[in-house]
Amino acid sequence: MTHRTTPFPDGFLWGASTAGHQIEGNNVNSDWWRKEHDPAAGIEEPSLDACDSYHRWDEDMDLLAELGFTDYRFGVEWSRIEPVQGTFSHAEIAHYRRMVEGAIARGLRPMVTLHHFTVPQWFEDRGGWTADGAAGLFARYVEHCAPIIADGVPYVCTINEPNMIAVMAGLKKAGDQGFPPAGLPTPDEETTHAIIAAHHAAMKTLRDRHPDIKVGWTIANQVYQALPGAEQITADYRHPREDVFIEAARGDDWIGVQSYTRTKIGADGPIPAPEDAERTLTQWEYYPTAVGHALRHTAAVLGDDTPLIVTENGIATGDDSRRIDYYTGALDAVAGCLDDGLNVRGYLAWSALDNYEWGSYRPTFGLIAVDPVTFARTAKPSAAWLGGLARDRALPRIGG
Fold first, then answer.
1. CA 240 to chain centre
2. Which helix (H) or strand (E) holds 20?
3. DSSP letter at 295?
4. Looking at residue 219, what is its pLDDT?
5. Which of the two residues, 146 and 5, has the higher pLDDT score?
C-alpha cells in the first residue's frame, strides 16, 4: 500500500471537537442533568464532574495547541447562560469569552457551538422546541451570546445535529421503545419544522449582529447505502432523517458534516451489519470511509456553493492503533473529495477528550484520555499522529 500526500487548501481547519455538557461537568440547570438523575429514565450513569473542563479548559487548549492542531470546536451551554427564563448570567458569558480569548492566544481558531443537545430545564418545562415562541427564545439567547463571539470567532454553529433532536422527539412520542437494530426511528415532524425555524431565526440574529462570522449547523450523516433495486426506498427513508435538514442549510455560510459509520438499505428497509463485521465500542460497524460518502452526498444535495466542514468524525475504541487506522482511512476519503474538487474547508475529529457519551463513559472517542478522579490529561499516540499531520499541512492518501 503506497501513501501519497495532498496539500491542505489555504485556511483549512484542522482540529478537534467537544460539547459543553459532555466535558464541563455539573451542568445542573440543563434538561440532561435532570434526566440523568431520574431513575425512571434508565440512564446508565450521570455526567457528574465529566472531565471538569469547565475549570480545566486551559489545559485542554494547551494540549491541542502543543499537539499541532489549529482549530478547536467547543460549545457554550444555554442552561448556564440563561438558567432562569429571561435571566442571563454575566459571569457565565464572561467565562465563555475567556475561553474564546484563551483559544486565540494559543493559536487555535475557535468554532463555537451554541446548542449541543441540551436545553435549560425551564425551556423543556414550557414544551421545548415545539412550544409557542421557542424559536424567538432561542434567538434571544443567541443575541445574548454576542459578547462571547463578537471578536475573533470565525465560525459559529447554531445547532448540533438537529436531525437527532427530531429523532429523539419522535422516539419519545412513540413511547421510548428504543432504537431499531439498524437505522433510526422516525423523526417527529413538528420538531423538525420547529428546529429548522429556530436555526433560521438564529441565522438572522447572527447575520444582523455579526455579518463577518460564518454561520451554519451540523448534520448527523448516516451514510445510507442502497442495495440494488432499493434506491427509491433509500431516498424516501433518508429524506426525513437527514436530507430535509441539509436542504434547510441552503444559503448558510457552511454546513457541518458528521459521520461515523454506514447504514445499508434493502427492499424492507435498514439492514444490520453482518455478525462478523468489526464493531466499535458503540456497536457501530467499523467503516472509516463513511465520511467521504457523507461529504459527497451533502455536496450532491446542496451543490458547490456551500462549503463543507467535517465537524465530527471518529471512533469509540480502547485500541488506539485502531483509532489511527480509522483516521487514516477517513482522511484518505477526505483527500479523495478534495482531489475531486469538493469544497471541503476543514476536518475536526471527535473527540478531543474521552468524555460523557450521553449515558455512559464507556465509549472512548477521545484523542486525549482523562483520569476520572484526578482529571489528569494524557495525549494518546493518535493525538500526536493527527496533530503531526496538521503541522505537515498535508492529508495522507492511500493508493495509486
1. 19
2. helix 20-23
3. H
4. 98
5. 146
Strands (E) in 188-336, as ranges, are 214-220, 224-226, 254-259, 263-266, 269-271, 308-313
C-alpha cell at 352: 478531543
330-348 average pLDDT score: 96
Identify whether the C-beta of residue 254 lies closer than 8 Å to the C-beta of residue 216: yes
Give domain limits for the chain.
Answer: 3-398
- Given a cut of 80, whether residue 400 has pLDDT beyond it is no
8 Å CB contact between 120 and 30: yes
- 271 near 182, Cβ under 8 Å? yes
d(CA 22, CA 13): 22
Which cell numbers in the block locate residue 155?
A: 465560525
CATH number of 3-398: 3.20.20.80
Chain center to CA of 366: 13
Question: Which phi-psi region, left, alpha or beta, contains residue 288 (left: φ > 0; alpha: ψ -120 to 50)?
Answer: alpha
What pLDDT does 2 receive?
A: 37
Q: Is 246 exposed, middle or buried (0-12, 13-18, 19+ CB in 10 A)?
A: buried
pLDDT band at 175 (very low <50, low <70, confident <90, very high): confident
On whether the CB atoms of residues 72 and 33 are closer than 8 A, the answer is no
Q: What is the DSSP letter of 39?
A: G
Burial-class residue 334 by CB neighbours within 10 Å (0-12, 13-18, 19+): buried
- Joined grid coordinates for residue 330: 477517513
